[in-house]
Each structure stands twice: as C-alpha cells, then as structure tokens.
Amino acid sequence: MVLDIFLFREAAVVALLFFITHFFIHSLIQKLSLQQPLPLGPKGWPLISAFSLLGTMPHVTLAEMAKKHGPVMYLKIGTCDFVVTSTLDAIQAFLKTLDLNFSNYPPNAGATHLAYNAQDIVFARYG
C-alpha cells in the first residue's frame, strides 16, 4: 500500500517534469525559428483553437473577423494552419502574384507509394 502511493507520486512528478520541459523546449524552438511571422488573427482555445469561434455561419464570422484583424489573417483550427484572405486585392496577390509558391503539393508518403513516385497528374511537380 505504501509502495503504491510512493510509485504514484514518483510517476506524477516525472509526468509533471516531462510536460514542463516539453513546454519550455517547444517555446524555445518556436522563438528561435527563423520563419517569417504569420499575419495576425484571433486567438482560440487550446486544442480546438479558432474552431469554436466560427459558429454556425462561418462566412459571416470570418467577415467580422476580417474587419477586426485585416484582409489577411491567420487561423489555427485544430492542428491545421490557415491563412484567410477576404479582399479582392489579397486574393489576387495569392492567386496571381504568388501562384508559383502555392502550385505544388507538399511531398507525402501516400503520393510516393501509390501514385508512381508522385509523378501522376495530381501530384506531379509544376513546371
């Protein structure tokens, strides 16, 4: 009985130390990364992020968010990152000016193994 309580306390302390260490390492790596900053956007809840903010009519909610955060905003929904554009100029910048940056799919194992080494019509590289 006493041994069980002792082992439970040790396991709890180890788990707590693991999560604290993971949090600090993750935040340090995030600060040291040399990525360009993403556009501003609404802050959401942990895990579900901005999914709870969208509500039953997401198009209306996104229009209201665009008035507050600007024509280009960043949303994190679950584990996926989204950049939302809401004006014609921003959409043209993405689809006409920066089209080569978005023309290729990122490499994945499914395309490599099932689609002829990612060379079929869907996953082939542009150009």
UniProtKB/TrEMBL annotation:
<dbReference type="GO" id="GO:0020037">
    <property type="term" value="F:heme binding"/>
</dbReference>
<keyword id="KW-0408">Iron</keyword>
<keyword id="KW-0812">Transmembrane</keyword>
<feature type="transmembrane region" description="Helical">
    <location>
        <begin position="45"/>
        <end position="66"/>
    </location>
</feature>
<keyword id="KW-0503">Monooxygenase</keyword>
<dbReference type="InterPro" id="IPR001128">
    <property type="entry name" value="Cyt_P450"/>
</dbReference>
<dbReference type="Pfam" id="PF00067">
    <property type="entry name" value="p450"/>
</dbReference>
<keyword id="KW-1133">Transmembrane helix</keyword>
<dbReference type="GO" id="GO:0005506">
    <property type="term" value="F:iron ion binding"/>
</dbReference>
<keyword id="KW-0349">Heme</keyword>
<protein>
    <submittedName>
        <fullName>Uncharacterized protein</fullName>
    </submittedName>
</protein>
<dbReference type="GO" id="GO:0004497">
    <property type="term" value="F:monooxygenase activity"/>
</dbReference>
<comment type="similarity">
    <text>Belongs to the cytochrome P450 family.</text>
</comment>
<keyword id="KW-0472">Membrane</keyword>
<dbReference type="GO" id="GO:0016705">
    <property type="term" value="F:oxidoreductase activity, acting on paired donors, with incorporation or reduction of molecular oxygen"/>
</dbReference>
<dbReference type="InterPro" id="IPR036396">
    <property type="entry name" value="Cyt_P450_sf"/>
</dbReference>
<feature type="transmembrane region" description="Helical">
    <location>
        <begin position="7"/>
        <end position="25"/>
    </location>
</feature>
<keyword id="KW-0560">Oxidoreductase</keyword>
<keyword id="KW-0479">Metal-binding</keyword>
